[in-house]
């Protein structure tokens, strides 16, 4: 029998140390970039606790309609931010866009804090939404392009963890300030300050982040692409081999050079865009941001006092973070499609039970606790299975030349759906009550399951180029 050559122990140690050093470098880069996700979470979640304070008669005196407009103005801005940022990211690069978005976060956050009227606040939240929509496109796109196939799901899911961590952070700060400074009419302004710090860290951290090698190669800069890929992989030979494979895939996709509406005449391209848009829409219409934007309002409607609802709402953030950590683990060992289908199945069941509880138990003293328990079940399965797989699959399905635009249009659709939910929920809650409003989301969840079962492909453990070949 022929003996297998053994690698000397000293060489094994050297390779191991080099791999550990490279892993640390990737962790640092991912941590800096996913500050965009943290800002996403903070700025979408902060409205949850401050809305009742802001809507008071001695403050902005917001009607249910104006509450919806103030809340959803950010998501409308995010829709247009997602749509435009994809093209800018393809033209100017992922790194440059993230730097500019950090500046936009600082300016718009400051504008929201000092807004004197509802009109000014709506305007500044729209601009803040442009930044939120921008990072929702650029961050997963960048991470998908620098990650190895094995690590891609975990790295993009880390962005989802940062989003939920941002929401938990702001839920805790809202509860603390809302109870300590309840007598201060301007407490809602203090609640907004938390978004300034991570924006500063992102701004000063971006110079250390390398540009995407795939983007550099698409701009005919192979030398810079190889240099950055070598930094990311920690091995020049591995980087050279990977770059060669990427170049070969670019040649195979050379017919897709720039965007044109004529491309939609091609069934394969049209299918990709419809799939991306569909995933974005169902992620929002399932109902997650009803909980993240109006969690405190829902708990008040179910029977909690205001200050108690602020504290109870922290549990939403805690479960979201635990679920995101669970999702990061599952992403490495479960197929994406299986995770998505199971997640939607469980969110559907939890919403159905909320409907039945609102119908039969709404007069019982335990009803508020039934609602919060079922909301936590909904959150766990959404944040661990639905949310991470949606972001990952959207970032995976488009070819390099169309990735920025494709992710941008898909995320634009996601944010438009988010806008509709944020605008209409307080009106529906006021007109129809908790039970009927949640029944509408139950029906949408059923439709989302059918869409996913019939159309969403499996993308786990495949290179980006292989994913597109198999769709």
From TrEMBL:
It is found in: Cell membrane. GO terms for molecular function: transmembrane transporter activity. Keywords: Membrane, Transmembrane, Transmembrane helix, Transport. The chain crosses the membrane at residues 25-45, 65-84, 96-116, 122-143, 163-182, 188-209, 272-295, 307-327, 339-360, 366-393, 405-427, 433-456. It is a multi-pass membrane protein. One of its GO terms (cellular component) is plasma membrane. Pfam families: Sugar_tr. It comes from the Bacteria. InterPro entries: MFS_dom, MFS_sugar_transport-like, MFS_trans_sf, Myo-inositol_Transporter, Sugar/inositol_transpt, Sugar_transporter_CS. Residues 29-460 form the Major facilitator superfamily (MFS) profile domain. Belongs to the major facilitator superfamily. Sugar transporter (TC 2.A.1.1) family. This is D-xylose proton-symporter. It comes from Liquorilactobacillus ghanensis DSM 18630.
